[in-house]
Amino acid sequence: MANTPTALVVATMDTKGQEAMFLADCLKSEGISVKIMDAGIRGTSPTPVDINREKVARAGGKSLQKVQNIGHEGKSLEVMTNGAIQCALELHRQNQVQGIIGLGGSMGTTLGSGVMRSFPVGLPKVMISTMASRDTRAFVGTKDIFMLHSVCDLVGLNRVTRKILRNGALALAGMLRSAVPDEAAEQKPLVFVSTLGTTEACAQQIRKTLEEKNNEVVIFHTVGSGGKAMEEMIGQEEISVLVDLSLHEIADHCFSGDYDAGPKRGSEALARKIPTILVPGNIDFLVTGPIESALKQFPNRPYHAHNAAITVVRTKQEEIKIMAQTIAGLCNNAKGPVKILVPLNGFSAFDHKEGPLHDPEAPEIFVKTLEKNLDDQSCLNALPYYINDSEFAQTIIDMVYRISSDIS
């Protein structure tokens, strides 16, 4: 990293020039160097910038004039965002920027967060936005973006915008000054584990045991974005083994639940020859919203109101069969070692024999369907445990050592 860290300010300087310059001044007062990228389309920048809009447009594949003539703000912004991503990544490859900050409304947030999502996890990212009090998943995606609500519109400098912009600058400055690589952790064998609160006891026993043996364990919360982030990071990190303990995002993708991580969930590690342990954790339920909408979307099913915002509904036995077929398909295409461990006494805390969604027949249906569809049944292990039993967690740990030579 450079001796003096540099922040990249991404803005549409025709509409946010004054605010971006104030942001830059705040960063400079904290000892942070600044580069400004202008991705505006109309108007002009009130000050010279380091990366001008003409360069951004060219990097997006069009001249600025052609972008201006598109006649559709969304399509024009898409070109400029793509160009801004290319310019920003080139600066990062050259070690010219170590952090990024953006500001704006819906268009500026789409631009800034789009650039931020192209940067690796760990690089400081702050997005000051009028949109930060809404659902931010479209902006944050799977990356570690700090969203700061601007409270009022980011138009001009006043007693409110000065405070908000200064706080955003100070947040980025603090992260940049304190950035230290964790070199010791990077030398340890790396284990990824997926879970939800309903399989937490199992996940925590796995984590604690493996960490005591000097392995590094990263837990992903499978709420849709969590599983998607895990799949992306599997392609970026050197993973020794994956324990995919919570596969319900695949069920939510297949059957219209809320925790959908997309069609590629479960495939990345298997395609990259990473030793993988699959457990059908949490496939006993689909996640949906408040109880009123849940009962309309999934009528005539056992359900459990987890809280005011989340209701879970029991998966049908036919859906369990489809899940088994889907998982068998993943395993049949695996390039590396894979094992499936099935807890026959329940897939989650809700599926415990005293839980609200228990179906004692579902695990056997799952196993029998796997047996019919797996090319190699030797990868399948059906065990007489409930998923959160200590004995089941220990079985997974033992399998980790068997399946991966990297784990100490």
Task: Write a short abstract of this structure.
This protein is α/β, with parallel strands linked by helices and 408 residues long. Helices cover 42% and strands 18% of the residues. Strands 7-6-8-9-13-14 form a six-stranded parallel β-sheet, with helices on both faces. A five-stranded parallel β-sheet has the order 2-1-3-4-5, with helices on both faces. Strands 10-12-11 form a three-stranded antiparallel β-sheet.
Give the topology, please.
Elements: E1 6-11, H1 13-29, E2 33-38, H2 53-59, H3 64-68, H4 73-93, E3 99-104, H5 106-116, E4 125-129, H6 137-140, E5 146-149, H7 159-177, H8 183-186, E6 190-195, H9 200-212, E7 216-221, H10 225-234, E8 241-246, H11 248-255, H12 268-271, E9 276-281, E10 285-288, H13 291-297, E11 303-305, E12 311-314, H14 317-332, E13 338-343, H15 362-373, E14 380-383, H16 390-403
Parallel strand pairs: 1-2, 1-3, 3-4, 4-5, 6-7, 6-8, 8-9, 9-13, 13-14
Antiparallel strand pairs: 10-12, 11-12
